[in-house]
Amino acid sequence: MKDKPKEPFVPVERHETIRREIIDLLKDNVLSAREISGRAGVSVKEVYEHLDHIQKSIGKGGRSLKVIPAECKMCGFVFKKRERLKKPGKCPVCKGESIEEPLFSIREKATVTDCA
Questions:
Q1: Separation of alpha carbons 112 and 76, rounded Å
Q2: pLDDT tens-digit profile of 35-72?
Q3: How many domains does the chain fold into?
Q4: Which residue from 46, 17, 23, 24 is spatially nearest to 34, judged by alpha carbons?
Q5: Cα 66 from Cα 86, distance rounded (Å)
Q6: Contact in structure between 65 and 104 (CB atoms under 8 Å)
Q7: What range defines the domain where residue 56 resides?
Q8: SS3 call for 107
Q9: CATH number reported for the structural domain that contains residue 104 in this entry
Q10: CA-based nearest residue to 84, from 104, 113, 106
């Protein structure tokens, strides 16, 4: 049996960096990592890596990454104090593994105006 030679991997043509594309997606939308993955054409694992970097870097530009925390579907526990962006494996309260993914968006930081 002859093996067919594999076609070389051709990356998707991009006009922007992946991080810039993710930032643009999150400016107008509230999305999960899975949704970002589908729209940006990268794996969910890569999305979390990019989100971690975006969270650290966009603060300098007057914006912030807003994270709506993950929530257990069985008992309703909300992972408010979780610092990691990835979806947790299981709930610490009911030990259930059915957990809603965290959601992400980018918002402008509020500016304080001086009162005259």
A1: 35
A2: 999 988 889 999 999 999 988 888 777 788 899 999 99
A3: 1
A4: 46
A5: 14
A6: yes
A7: 18-108
A8: strand
A9: 1.10.10
A10: 104
Q: How many residues does the chain have?
A: 116
**Rounded Cα gap, residues 12 and 6, in angstroms:** 18
Distance CA 49, CA 93 (A): 28
| pLDDT tens digits along 101-110 | 999 999 876 6
pLDDT band at 114 (very low <50, low <70, confident <90, very high): very low
Task: Tell me whether residue 73 is in a domain.
Answer: yes
What is the 3-state secondary structure of 11-80?
Answer: CCCCCCCHHHHHHHHHHHCCEEHHHHHHHHCCCHHHHHHHHHHHHHHHHHHCEEEEEECCEECCCCCECC
